């Protein structure tokens, strides 16, 4: 039998299916990785915004992690929306207990429309509890500003923020450039503690970018689950999200989801 690669996402549910757990599982599946999930919160959400946030208690998160950890042994794990310090501490405890060392931390804080997905007081727990356990952290620019307390405008500041987040314990940092509006390219910065690698792609002019960060970090986790290096996994994640934004589905009246089929379609030669 061929080896089955397995990845676990610890994140919130997006009823609209473009971000959160749904984006993660679709991405795992498209990249040939068996997906598992531990829910932290249920959101009532669509392309127009977040209509409600219903967090789970930490014990419900712990129970799901024990169910997966005691039986299914994920090859890689990613975190998304964690909502509270209590949930972050529970997740960190289980990551340590089960020795999940291929951990991608996407420090989700605020949805694109401005709704908070992480309590302000939980940012410190993210820094002290989870970043030190992470193999890869994938902040966007506002998240990097919140983690570091810096205001980031130019490339030099972005590099400085990546170094700071690395010193918080993330062995690799991908500082994503989606929010750097007004530029013709999108520059994601990968820092490995030693050198900067610049992943640049043309900026696609579209409003359909709901869940780009979730999809990107899930693709990176899928690559790690398959045994790829961090650099390989991040390069594939960039190609996956670029295709998913380019071939957008155009659904919903607001900020629509990306096309999770796009990368696989291209690989299979079925271009839309
Ligand atoms: N308009 C765009 N064109 C091309 N690539 C983009 C665009 N917007 C985002 N990306 C890519 O998508 C990935 C996610 O970046 P972004 O900075 O948007 O994350 P995010 O803000 O965490 O996403 P979200 O919170 O919506 O899930 C990055 O690899 C980035 O380069
Ligand atoms: C559940 C959830 N997680 C993450 C994001 C960030 O895109 C979102 N909008 N919703």
Automatic annotation (TrEMBL):
It catalyses: 4-amino-5-hydroxymethyl-2-methylpyrimidine + ATP = 4-amino-2-methyl-5-(phosphooxymethyl)pyrimidine + ADP + H(+); 4-amino-2-methyl-5-(phosphooxymethyl)pyrimidine + ATP = 4-amino-2-methyl-5-(diphosphooxymethyl)pyrimidine + ADP. Residues 14-259 form the Pyridoxamine kinase/Phosphomethylpyrimidine kinase domain. Pathway: Cofactor biosynthesis; thiamine diphosphate biosynthesis; 4-amino-2-methyl-5-diphosphomethylpyrimidine from 5-amino-1-(5-phospho-D-ribosyl)imidazole: step 2/3; Cofactor biosynthesis; thiamine diphosphate biosynthesis; 4-amino-2-methyl-5-diphosphomethylpyrimidine from 5-amino-1-(5-phospho-D-ribosyl)imidazole: step 3/3. The keyword Kinase applies. It is an enzyme of class 2 (transferase). Belongs to the ThiD family. It comes from Paenibacillus borealis. This is Hydroxymethylpyrimidine/phosphomethylpyrimidine kinase. Its EC number is 2.7.1.49, 2.7.4.7. One of its GO terms (molecular function) is kinase activity. Pfam families: Phos_pyr_kin (PF08543). Keywords: Kinase, Thiamine biosynthesis, Transferase.
